[in-house]
Amino acid sequence: MKRTSKRIKDRPRLCVFRSNKHIYAQIIDDSNNQIIASSSTLTQMIKKNTKLSNNCNAARSVGKNIAQKSKALGIKKVVFDRQNKIYHGRIKALAEAVREEGIKF
């Protein structure tokens, strides 16, 4: 369990993983140890709409998708977990897309 999630147990965690080819986002409820929602550049809808999966446009698509899923579940506040990656490039694009959709962190 991450240190941030130990401090804030009332909010789920938006965990972002970035590889060289893809980006993955999951909303995790640490109190129940469950993944509530997930999205990545491997999902069919995002894969169909983007040519490359390793650029900022693909990360924005993943951010919008995960934000829409979380709003449908009634989640409006999350803790952003970037897993010691710098807040730049694809991580920043995903985070800004999530914020534009109305999710706060």
TrEMBL record:
GO terms for biological process: translation. One of its GO terms (cellular component) is ribosome. GO terms for molecular function: 5S rRNA binding; structural constituent of ribosome. Keywords: Plastid, Ribonucleoprotein, Ribosomal protein, RNA-binding, rRNA-binding. Gene3D superfamilies: 3.30.420.100. SUPFAM superfamilies: Translational machinery components. InterPro entries: Ribosomal_L18 (IPR057268), Ribosomal_uL18_bac-type (IPR004389), Ribosomal_uL18_bac/plant/anim (IPR005484). The keyword Cytoplasm does not apply. Part of the 50S ribosomal subunit; contacts the 5S rRNA. Binds 5S rRNA, forms part of the central protuberance of the 50S subunit. Belongs to the universal ribosomal protein uL18 family. This is Large ribosomal subunit protein uL18c. It comes from Gracilaria spinulosa.
